[in-house]
Structures are given as structure tokens and as C-alpha cells.
Amino acid sequence: MISNKNNIFEKMLYYYMEAKWEIIEQGFHPEIDWQEEIIFEEVTETDFIREAAWVILSSGMRETVIRGKFEKISKAFFNWASAEIIHHNSSDCRKRALQVFRNTKKIDAIIKIASHVYFEEFETVKSILLQEKTIYLRRFPFLGPATSYHLAKNIGLPVAKPDRHLCRIAEATGFETPNELCNEIAQALGENISVVDLVLWRFATINKNYIEFFTREYCKEYQLLKV
Predict the structure, then answer these.
(1) Alpha-carbon torsion 46, 202, 41, 177, what sign?
(2) Is 192 helix (H, G, I), strand (E, B) or coil?
(3) For labelling, which of 13, 117, 183, 210 has a CA lying 20 to 30 Å from the CA of 125?
(4) Nearest 5 degrees, angle CA 150-CA 156-CA 160?
(5) Distance between CA atoms of 96 and 76, rounded to whole angstroms?
(6) Are 73 and 188 within 8 A, CB to CB?
(7) What's the average pLDDT block by block, 10 residues per block, for the chain (227 residues)?
(8) List of residues 6+ apart from 32 with CB closer than 8 A
């Protein structure tokens, strides 16, 4: 039974690599390179505020919409130069940002995070993040059970986000959570769990039949073995 299970999991790894090759072929390799290069210890204040803004803006929105507006929003926030600059110029940042993206609650949420970082100091925030991870992030607006993992992943913490695509893939392949799915693949291939997350998510966005792709015959067998 164990041998059979291992053989089935090897097929799962093969399909993961097949999906990874597909997104590379379609020009998304810079995303993989970016995710691989993120090291939490090297994340700066600018990195943190920028990624927090991206996740907040992306919440409930199509990625392509935010990507098309993000450069102008970044300029409205002084290109995320520092929490201090954003805090002391919050009214101007808010006014300029709302000219690009008319969602008051999301823009205010970005300002709230920048002000929090300013008052607490980033090294303190970073130290708490290392200990509490997503629990700490959930105190902020728009950073809920899924989006807090999204931000944690984007700043180099070893987690996988439970978004709808990854939840569907995990369920279809017999795993209890996306984190379990991504962690097993990551350990087997020596990749970062956040990279596995990215590969599966990006593949799901470019292949509408991604569930069928990951639920070929071996997956049904593997699901039975995990019961």
C-alpha cells in the first residue's frame, strides 16, 4: 500500500511540474523568479507596505484590473518610500489615490497600515510577524483568513494561501488544506511552499480546466489511499 501511494504521489509531482512548465512557456517565469527570491529577513519597510497595498487592492478584484492601476496608485503613495512619508501626507495620498481607484475603504486601509508601521516601527512589526504570522496581519482591514496568507506569502513567510483555486485543487487531490498540498509538493521537490502556491494558482488562472487537469485517474486513487 505504501509503495503504491508513493508511486501515485510521484505522478502528482509530475503533473505539478507539467503545470509549472506551462506557465513558464506562457511567459510567467518572472513571477516564479520573484517569489523564489523573496527572503523574509531581507524584506524592507517599502516592500511590506507595497505588498500590503497590493493584497488589499486585489481583495475581491481581478488581478489584471489592479495591475493596470497599481503604478499610478504607487505614485500617489510616493512609491511606498516610507511609512513616515505616507503617514504625514496621508490626506494628499488619499486624494490622489482615489482619483485612480475609487474605493475609499481600501485606500484608507492602506493608510492605516502605513500609519501603524510608522508608530510601531518596522523592525518591531517584522519581529511580531515572524512570531504570529497571519494572526498579526488579521488585525488590519481586508486582511482576512485568505488575504492574510496572501500577504504573508508575498513577504517571504512559508505559507500557502487558501484561495478558491487552491482550495479546489486540494480537495480534488485528496488533501485537507492548500497548505498541506503545497507543503508536501515543496518538500518532495525542494521548492519553497510559496512557489508551489504560485505555480498552482497561476496555472488555475490560465487553464479553466485546471480541476480536470489535477483530477486524472491517479488523483482518485490517491484520495482513496488517504482515507
Answers:
(1) positive
(2) coil
(3) 183
(4) 40
(5) 5
(6) no
(7) 58 90 95 93 97 95 91 98 98 97 97 97 95 94 93 93 91 88 93 95 93 73 56
(8) 20, 23, 24, 195, 198, 199
Res 2: pLDDT: 42
pTM of the model as a whole? 0.82
Instruction: Indicate the domain borders of the chain.
Output: 2-38+160-226, 40-154
Amino acid found at 13: L
Distances (CA, A) of 141 to 17, 38, 71, 144, 171: 36, 24, 22, 8, 28
pLDDT at position 8, please?
A: 67
Secondary structure class of 29 (helix, strand, coil): helix
8 Å CB contact between 203 and 22: yes
Smallest CA-to-CA distance from 103 within 173, 164, 56, 155 is with 56
Give the burial string for 38-55 (b: 16+ CB within 10 Å, else e).
beeeebebebbbbbbbbb
* CB within 8 Å of 7: residues ≥ 6 apart: none
Quote the CA–CA distance of 93 and 99 in Å, as a whole number.
10
Distance, first Cα to last Cα, the chain = 12
| Residues 96 and 74: beta-carbon distance below 8 Å | no
